[in-house]
UniProtKB/TrEMBL annotation:
Keyword Cell membrane attached: yes
Role, per record: Part of the Tol-Pal system, which plays a role in outer membrane invagination during cell division and is important for maintaining outer membrane integrity.
Gene encoding the protein: tolQ
MotA/TolQ/ExbB proton channel domain mapped to chain residues: 81-209
Transmembrane segments: 6-32, 129-152, 172-194
Name the record gives this protein: Tol-Pal system protein TolQ
Cellular component GO terms held in the UniProt record: plasma membrane
Superkingdom of source: Bacteria
Native source species: Pandoraea faecigallinarum
Membrane disposition: Multi-pass membrane protein
Subunit and partners: The Tol-Pal system is composed of five core proteins: the inner membrane proteins TolA, TolQ and TolR, the periplasmic protein TolB and the outer membrane protein Pal. They form a network linking the inner and outer membranes and the peptidoglycan layer.
Pfam family, one: MotA_ExbB
Length: 224
């Protein structure tokens, strides 16, 4: 019996049509997950840098009106925390211009505005995380399906062979196991990236919430 080429490319090319479809789907999921991973790396890094820069400016003792005006003039460069500050300050200024006499209503309006902006910013930061979680949890099972199907085909082919040997069944099983390998290749980076990004976003979330509380206290002192 001639030696069979057991290279990865050869195994994929000789796999059944369904197994090839499974491998193609897994490779597509892997490509999409890596695209989201690199985008999320840059997005989180940019959000962290912008947050640190604004915290430095805010706690340096500068005028709140000047910070607010700077945020309005540089909207394309503002970060998440700066937009949260801008929304609260805008609501506070509007309430003050309307001559509201209820300090609690003014403070509550500013806090609600910041909370709404905070939620929008968190939704933007968490975009595509569910996709990474899905790829990480589903890809191994998709690969396992391709493997089971390939092994079934390998053993079905033995029905026409009078004497089954390892040489008869090895290529078919090797083809099937490639699907599992590709499934793990797609799943492992997605799981690692998801856990890392979730931790980084949680840390940013804590910083945003702390700022909302601290800025609310500053506004409360200004009102009184």
């Amino acid at each position: 019996m001639p030696d069979q080429d057991l290279s990865i490319i050869s195994l994929v090319m000789h796999a059944s049509l369904l197994a090839q479809a499974v491998m193609g789907l897994l490779l597509l999921l892997s490509l999409l997950s890596w695209t989201h991973i690199f985008r999320k790396i840059f997005a989180i890094r940019r959000a962290r840098t912008q947050t640190e820069r604004f915290e430095r400016d805010f706690w340096s003792g500068g005028d709140l009106q000047a910070l607010y005006q700077s945020a309005l003039n540089n909207r394309h460069q503002t970060g998440s925390l700066e937009r949260i500050f801008e929304s609260g300050m805008r609501e506070y200024i509007k309430a003050s211009e309307k001559g509201l006499n209820d300090p609690h209503a003014i403070l509550d309006g500013a806090r609600r505005a910041m909370r709404a902006c905070y939620q929008r910013e968190m939704d933007a930061l968490e975009a595509n995380l569910p996709f990474l979680a899905s790829v990480g949890s589903v890809s191994p099972y998709i690969g396992l399906f391709g493997t089971v199907w390939g092994i079934m085909n390998a053993f079905r082919g033995l029905s026409n062979v009078q004497q089954a040997t390892l040489a008869n069944v090895a290529p078919g099983i090797a083809e099937a196991l490639v699907a599992t390998a590709i499934g793990l290749f797609a799943a492992i980076p997605a799981v690692v990236a998801y856990n890392r990004f979730a931790t980084d976003i949680d840390r940013l979330s804590i910083r945003f919430e702390s700022f909302i509380e601290e800025f609310s206290n500053i506004l409360q002192r200004q009102i009184h």
